[in-house]
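[SOLVED] Predicted holo structure with adenosine-5'-triphosphate

Edit: marking solved, answer below. Original request kept for reference. I posted the sequence and ligand SMILES and asked for the 3D complex as structure tokens.
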Amino acid sequence: MAKLKTKFVCQKCGYSTARWIGKCPECESWNSFVEEIQDTSVSKKSKSIERKADSANILMLSGITETKEMRFSTGIDELDRVLGGGVVNGSIVLIGGDPGIGKSTLMLQISSKLHGKKFLYVSGEESAVQIKMRAERLGNIPENFYVLSETNLELIEAVIIQKEPDFIIVDSIQTVYRPELESAPGTVSQLRESTSKLINIGKTLNIPIFLVGHITKDGTIAGPKIIEHMVDVVLQFEGERTHLYRILRGIKNRFGSTNEIGIFEMTEKGLKEVPNPSEVFLSQRNYGASGCVISSSIEGTRPILIEIQALVSPTSYGFPQRTSMGFDLKRLNIIIAVLEKKLGIFLNKYDVFINVAGGVKVDEPAVDLAVAMSIYSSYKDVPVDSETIVLGEVGLAGEIRTISNIERRINESAKLGFKRILLPKNNLKYIDLKKYKIEITGVENIKEAQGKLI
Ligand SMILES: Nc1ncnc2c1ncn2[C@@H]1O[C@H](COP(=O)(O)OP(=O)(O)OP(=O)(O)O)[C@@H](O)[C@H]1O
Ligand SMILES: [Mg+2]
């Protein structure tokens, strides 16, 4: 096979040269040249291209029958949900996350659930022995599982064609390289060309490929961001390493919604699915403690009950601190201002700390009222009834504004045995109160909410 020619292209203006230069003569930008493959096959071999075009699989859109079999389940419900209902054949999924979060573990666990499928695990980071050790720890040595410790994409392609796997995992995309390019693995050009080659392989052979990617903060080595637009699905594995819980979030999905999340717990036996997150997040709840309020947040299509904790204590410095874990700091400042204006408490001599228990992050306004009430409760040192769920967005005038997905939140609260739910009065119009076994109270403003709770 003839060696592919490469050229260096300025990423700002598109000027190309045969060798790398530091400054673009066209647009005068520095360090903007990236190596790219120069494809000359079209002009040189036009006859063979024609022959190829004849044999290519060109179809009329109206003639394609979409079949259900295109998708298959990974056997891990939390992952299936984030993928939009399973893996699509021929799709390319990029899964990114911090070091040690559990990317390789999750990839290995898929293989144990999918019996009868042939796996190819391309590992550029770990030796075959390490992978075997991990599989042993997870308690499962899958059959039909090939391990390939190789980073040269030409050889990887050859193995794929020879072994014809049903599922390919590349761990990680930063380590594989195309020998035609001079640049080192992990650089922008290698990442882009390697990914496009793998996409090509996956789409042609109709094999799903999972690419593991590292998040790098270093400017010189490109993170997976650069290839996000090329792949079909981008998943992000999140979580504090010190917490047990890991959240798998869809960032981009050509086959489904990106609102879904999957929740896992990291154990010695690998990642365990958490089918009922509310129970887990509330399992270490404080009963009767001041500053603790339960609220509900919608993650994807699922309502999750969470505990908002506030600590208000006299400041020891001249300037009061506002610290928030899992809740937006700007919103916290707004809520504090509303509390001061409408409830007449003055927090300028107090530090305010907010924590969403369990390491969860919430970014929807429906928990505003719970945050406000937890601050008030901590300030007054009077507990809020632990059987009550508090919901509502707080407006600047102290009004409690309508929130979305109210029925799902009520159902989840009732399911977990809560007695009472406080929600925006305007939401009551759309609720059939008799349908629920939980006491529902509507409130119009923050003053009224405080009167009903504390
Ligand atoms: N014996 C063990 N018991 C419990 N948890 C373990 C054990 N061994 C490893 N782990 C967990 O597995 C994690 C490593 O998982 P994994 O190697 O899948 O991460 P990764 O995202 O692939 O990391 P990298 O970026 O280094 O490839 C560790 O951070 C730890 O939480
Ligand atoms: Mg790994």
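OP edit: The CA atoms of residues 130 and 136 lie 10 Å apart. Thanks to everyone who chimed in.
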